[in-house]
Amino acid sequence: MLTVLMLALVSAFCVNADKPTSPPASNTLTIADVAVSGNLTILVAALKAADGKLLAAVTNSSTAVTVFAPTDAAFQAAITSLNTTAAALLANKPLITKILEFHISPSIVMSKEATMHGVKVSTLLPGQDLLVTKKGLGSKAKVFVTGYKTKAKVLKADMLAGASVVHVIDKVLIPNLS
Ligand SMILES: *[C@@H]1O[C@H](CO)[C@@H](O)[C@H](O)[C@H]1NC(C)=O
Ligand SMILES: *[C@@H]1O[C@H](CO)[C@@H](O)[C@H](O)[C@H]1NC(C)=O
Ligand SMILES: *[C@@H]1O[C@H](CO)[C@@H](O)[C@H](O)[C@H]1NC(C)=O
Hints:
Elements: H1 2-18, H2 31-37, H3 41-49, H4 52-58, E1 66-70, H5 72-81, H6 86-91, H7 93-101, E2 104-105, E3 119-121, E4 130-135, E5 142-147, E6 150-161, E7 164-169
Parallel strand pairs: 1-7
Antiparallel strand pairs: 1-2, 3-4, 4-5, 5-6, 6-7
One 2-acetamido-2-deoxy-beta-D-glucopyranose (NAG) binds at residues 38-39.
């Protein structure tokens, strides 16, 4: 009986230990707040245009995810290479939802966890992972995130948004849409 209780206690601790690494501190900001204050206007518009569940998650400071947040310049470049316009992209709810889901991981990944060989990170798109890599050492290290055929550079890492973390990136990661 005692053994069973101890095992239960031990496994309760293990569950805690297995939790993804949490950000060092948390605040009451939401992902949307961080995106607005970072001038990520197309990302904000995209989050509003996507599936409502996504908007609910990014406006809730209890949400614990990692967001790779493309800059406006990154969105403009992606819009050009997809031969579309911002309005047309945002009007395509299934497409913009899929693209955004590819930028959100259900686990917390801080930039210090990036490695030379890469850390595989799942996304909200089933079966489509990202690889977070690091090049260089110490303060000169640069962090990259690769998704399908796109490799983006992290421009601003580890911005805390409530229980979530946001990394600003220089390219839109286009998932395998086939
Ligand atoms: C956002 O834009 C405003 C106005 O142009 C500027 O003052 C501010 O520094 C910008 N913030 C960031 C994080 O780039
Ligand atoms: C915010 O997220 C938490 C955790 O997922 C959830 O329990 C809560 O109901 C959400 N709040 C709102 C206002 O949706
Ligand atoms: C966009 O248009 C260019 C030129 O017409 C074409 O070469 C390219 O394959 C198109 N790209 C997509 C994603 O449709």
